[in-house]
Records
---
Amino acid sequence: MRYAETGINLEIDLSSGNIERVETDVKLTHLHLGGLGTNSRIIWDRVPPEADPFSEDNLLIFSTGLLGGTPAPGANRTIISAYSPQTLLMGFSMMGGFWAPELKHAGYDKVIFKGKSPKLVYVWINNDKVEIRDASHLKGKGAIETTEIIKKELGDPRVQVAAIGLAGENRVYFASIEHTKSSASRLGLGAVMGDKGIKAVAVRGTKDIYVAQPERFMELCDEILKYIVKREEKPIPGVMPILAGLGSPQEMRIVDEKWHTENFSWGNARKRIKDYWNKEVEEKWKQVQEGVRKRLVSCWNCPMRCAAVVAVPGISTYVMKCFSKLTYTMAAYSDLDFGFRIAQRATEYGVDGYTTPQVMAFALELYEAGILTDKDMEGMPPDTEGRFFWLLEKIVRREGIGDVLANGTYWAAKAIGKGAEEYAHNNIKKHEQLPIKLGMLNPVYFLMYCTGEKSNITQIEGQFPQAPFATLEEREDFVKDWIQVPDEKFKKYLLDWEPRGERSNPYYPTPQMSCEIVDWQEMMHYIDDSVGICAGLSSFPLKPPYHIHNYPMIISAATGMNLDEEGLKEIYRRNRNLLRAINVRRGLRREDEKPPEDHWKKRFPELEKQLLDAYYEFKGWDMNGIPKEETLRKLGLDYVVEDFRKRGILNQ
Amino acid sequence: MEKKVIKKIKVIKIDAEKCTGCLACEMACSAFHATPKYSSTNMSRARIRVVSDPLRDIYLPVYAGEYTKMECAGRDKYIIGGKEYGECDFCRASCPSRDAFKEPDSGLPLKCDMCESQPPLEEPMCVKWCLNDALVYEEREEEATEETKVEELDVAIESLIDKFGRSKVRDAFERITSKT
């Protein structure tokens, strides 16, 4: 009997049409939990490091987390993994919503796709009955449109659908996988899905999911709920309103965007507008936001309301979450109304809301600089907003210049040449970052930006405040009920962290402290991504309901494993090192680990070297960022050692 | 003579405007009614069902009510606040025309029992798990006529008789009980 998980993966070979239910080894659950952990293991074991992301060999894995579908609040994440066409490293993108719980109720922990379908298909998983169906009638359809058609076709409104739009079909490197109110957007996994010829995966499940210690597990879930209520009543003072509570940044609920509009950069991550937010803007944005927002909505079994049903008059309804509200707005130097309008189309086409606006702003900069010419931009309208819509159409269809831009700023700049590289200035590991340009280097963020396997800061940061509190009084107040710290020393780090003076950025927190803080942040994300709990209730916000002290009990009660804190930490380290090993085998090295050059105005090359050295040392990696033999062996990753040896990686 | 008694009436107040469609109510209901308690979740066993359609902004929690052997004639449409609902959407019945409110394996009817148990819960599980207050529990006292409560088993057997006929159910019952 398997608890929390089903113990069954669905293996679908699109080339041959073969479908199999495969029982998984429970040992792997004990070693890696599930979700991202077991996805990494499957990719390590089965996908050769030479494989092209657009090849039959690349596996595309849709996974539930180990706790997914159990009563644990927020256990709804779908963790999707494959080699990314953009970074060429392992891409892991996640989405909330309802898909993963439905899959587990259908009797599966994962769906693993290999091969390529000769024609466009969709996959219909209805408990034990699994079919590959023709999708020629869905070709070119929007992601939301596709979802609606499939639900109607299958005659069941409770079917959960993950679909790609035109961008995925055309293998745009930043194509997303869309699912009602959520999307797996980063790192181009929608393009991999399109390359495999899968338009959508529809799921319906009506089976039981069991837990090992029912009464105990429910008691722990009750505590989580109670904590959420208490925590929501007490927003954290001194941090921006969208980050004061739990959940994703509460941008659908809250209108106040002073922080983003003045601290994030506009255009192609270029310009900060320090006095942007005023009464007039606030009034106007309030009117726009409340005018189009029909309702705040939740993901499966989560009390937070991070998304909103958005209906702009004259265009079809969609659901928006989080920061895509501002990415188009700010990239085009426009306003919220434009943001809501273009995001609808972008959602239907299925593109990443972070990368896409930046690619378009990048193109317009190249045009202004004369690097792209009228010939490249033939037919482009004169106004910026019109140009954004025009570029979006070109990109998702891969028409003309859109075919180049569809590969993202890094690859586009390389193809365009003529100095275009200078304009692709906001990438890490070939991947577009949030448009943040700041003054003073923050050592903790420096390390996260450099070393995060995900290349997306919101999926690495959390737990620890982004900036020091101004007064000692505020700090003392903050640490009072900070039960989440893995060790009391973190309280001291925060108490001592000053906005100015000796104990301030960039030299404080010290490199050693910075490593410890980053390790804690990473640990929580890696656990969340393996058990399928949303970061919004765990690794992302300050003082979340899930933490390193209650997670072992929750996982144990659900699964029957006998985990303590040390055991869970070891699994985290194993998963962290395995993911690093996959990327090392794909060619990742120290020289790739750097933030955009202009991320901070004030840079400290010597300190930065010290920080990275300290981090590698802390992790048990060599100075090239490669896990050392003893580190790997301690975690039972001997097979990685053997492989590294064979490839000459350990001897470099 | 009918006997009048003071009864505690348990009410769940449903504010559909506050529903965010998270389905925690369905999940919690199924966990409470699992055997052993909380040992499994399966929303298709829930005695509450949220009719939801995000694109049309429809979120409607409905509780399972009486079992009925007949389909009704209700095919009407309701338009409320510009949103179109089917008559079935509001219906509590476990009826032959749909899968709702039936055990997925056996097809036996399900009915909300307000999570009555010993020791009693403070409020039904669905209400407890609805932190957005779309579901709120209330109690009030009312003078009512005493009624004989139909046992769950009676309803189940009755539904089997409706489905397979009296003699088949009797045969099956005798065959199975004589084995043990």
---
Amino acid sequence: MRAFGSRSKAASPSQSPLPQAGEGEKIRPTQLMEKRATFSSTTIGLVFIAPMLLLIFVFFYWPSGQALYWAFTLEQPWGGGNQWVGLQNFQQLLSDPVYWNSITRSLVFGLASTAIAMGVALVLALFTDRELRFHRAYRSIFVWPYAIAAPALGLAFRFILAPEAGLLSVLNSIWPNIWNPALDGKDAMIAVIVAFSWKYIGYNFIFFLSALAAIPRSLIEAAAMDGAGPARRVVDIQLPLLTPTLFFLLVINITESFQDSFGIVDIMTQGGPARATELMVYKIYFDGFKGLDYSGAAAQSIILMGLVVLLTIVQFRFIERRVHYK
Amino acid sequence: MHAKFLGAAGMFAIAAMLAGPAMADKTKIDFWFGNTGDIAKRVQEQCDRFNQSQSDYEVVCTSQGSYDASLQNTIAAFRAGKQPTIAQVSDAGTLDIMLSGAFYPANKLMKDMGYDVDWNDYFSGIKSYYATSKGDMYSFPFNSSTPLLYWNKDAFAKIGKDQAPATWEEAAEDFKALKAAGYTCPLGFNISRDEIWQFGEQVLAVAGEPVASKRNGYDGLDAELVFNKGTWVKFIKDLKGWYDNGEAVLKSKETGQTFVEAFAAGDCQVILTSVGDHGNIGRTAKEGMNWGVAMLPVYAGTERKHSFVGGASLWVLNGKSDAEYKGAAAFFNFIAKPEEALTWSTVTGYIPVRNSGYDYLVKQGFYDKAPYAGRELAIKSLTASPATADSLPGIRLGGLLQIRQEMANGLQAIFINNADVQTSLDEAAARGNQILRRFEQTYKGKQLP
């Protein structure tokens, strides 16, 4: 750790002389401080942030508040009224071993898909950044998966991974029954992890590529002249300078893997076989939108929100320390 | 610039005033439904026929993507005060809307609007499924179906049989013989939430056994699940036995071919599915394949009872104007015509819901012709026993979709993880009962109508 800290310190002098060169450099907080134009009136400031605050209120605080309220009630779906039940919804959930299993599964899903999505995206971005042949084409192509809606993605992967008729059925013809997400819970989990990761590889790729482009060429070239090969340069220069991006993507990927997976699960496995892919967010979707159990789904949302907040705090508390923004 | 703008606005205002009375001649009503694909097209055609048949009302029919989505969108719209006049609600959502008070009861609507409807014209099995305990109809049965056993006549000929199994014992023999004759998939089936309908609810229905106490929930919200205590345990054990012997094979979207597709392709020799698939299988069946349908088997010595109707009914929602309700009543009057029943049953696989419609179809020779012959068995199955005070009219349970999911999870544990049958079904029933108790508590103080 000490070693990479000193290297990034060494990196800063060469960066600072040309900060406005427009090479994708982000404006750093310190520069902002130096050039800030001050507004004397807080009213103007409030007016500027009002539209954003309104949006956040309408699309986040209002629904969250509603969910929080419903979580402590039993709500009739057609709006015929509700009754206060206190912590009953939470007690029922937390005393249910099946629910705890779905929490464990969500964690496994979140960690595995984040690792795959970030790892593969990083490798692809590093190769593209080295300007290998066709790198321009890769740059556009790798972004596409993120633009595909989850249900379409789920359909495509359901076909690709189908044990009898899909592309992977070749495996079964060589080794019978080696791959069957319809009957084997582990295979089903792998299938949804692969589908979800595939989508986020594209997303992560954009961020990694632009972060790599922001690393001064002179640094890499200097290292090359000192005799460092491509792998060494990745480990000692590019990765340490990527830590802010790595951290940002880690937080985003973990959060999204807890929230954005229900579409894929719904199309590919419906939570089966035998609950093997029943993630927390899929259960919320199913209970709330299909089962009309609004209060149960609301209570589960609150627990999920708590868990994501907790995970994010842990990441900021223990991982961000190792991130060097400058 | 300013003057121009005002001028334009004025023109619009005048245009709106002129158009106003002209538009008012036609009252627009919204109808939201959940069917998709070909069926959605057929619903749309029916709406067009209604719109062309008269000039007072215009019904605007919109598919919402699925039963669940349609119900969800209708509820959201209702809570925001922007509900459609007519909404389709599937069997699983019936109890919620029935307890909500958010609707204009169908029987009252027709009476208020001056239509005289003979409610007893509905098939008793269909009527009782949707009616209140007093026999009042709050909604109109719309797309109705019931499950049948589909069998491949060519394959059965190979084992020397020219008829479908009538009992499960006979079916077991047939599966064994088919397997011995080299068929790899004598019975194609699946165990997701969607198949609980034919493999659970309907198998019990024709056996005359309940899924839940209190006449399957019709006599009170305090009903409890009992599917883990009777014939179903034996049936699941048998099914598991066939599965273990390779006589029953799981076929689903996840494996790459659904059991309906597998049957149409000649890969599976027997399936259980809705009569609604009859048209689809007829169109997609392998060329030259001889196949037929039969009523669901029962165990030997069991007296056959009528099966339950599946599908959805149409509800009229609260908070609309009198003119809109008049339009809705006119629409219901239109789709109840026997000619409409004929067109509807011809283009979809759904069955007529009234005796008059059925008689009309019979008179037209509908059931004699090749692509439609066999569908009369659905009516026979639905009317196999009379609806009496203590017979089971259908299933009226809160959270039915979630209960089906629990049953499916239980089956998946049995078939995939080799869990013990009785233990898994007990657990599914216990979890299902929790859902029922939550539902009962949610509607505390409300009485089943």
